[in-house]
Amino acid sequence: MEQTDAVRRKINRTAEAVGSLLVDGFHYLALFAIGASIVWSGVYAFIGMTAKGHAAIDDILLLFIYLELGAMVGIYFKTNHMPVRFLIYVAMTALTRMLISDVQAHHRPDLGVIYITAAILLLAVATLVVRYASSKYPAGPAGERAGR
Is 0.85 surpassed by the pTM of this model? Predict the structure, then answer.
C-alpha cells in the first residue's frame, strides 16, 4: 500500500510540474503575442500618420492608447497582476478620442457629447475609487489572498 501511495504522489508531482510548465509557456507566449500585436498596430498607425504628412489629435490619442496597452502588458508580465487602472485609462483615452472625432466631424453640440463626457467623468471617479481602495486596502501576497 505504501508503494502505491508513493507512486501516486510521484505521478501527481510530475503531472503538476508538466501542467505548470504548459500553463507558464502558454502565458508567456500569449503575452508576447499581445505585446507584438500592440507594437505592430502602433507602428502601422505611425506609418499612416507619416504618410498623411501630419498627425491629428485622434492619431496622437491612438498612440497613447497603444502606449497604455503596452505598459499594461509590461506590468502584467512583471507582476502577474492585471492593472485595472490601466484599463480605465485606456477607456478614458478611447472615449476622449471618440469625443474629439465627433465634435470635429459634426461641429455641433448634442446629447452624445454629454453622454461621452459623463462616461469619462464616471471613469475618472472609478480611477479615484480604485486608487483609494488600493492604498487603503493593499493586496497581500498571493498566498495570503487565497487563504482568505
Answer: no
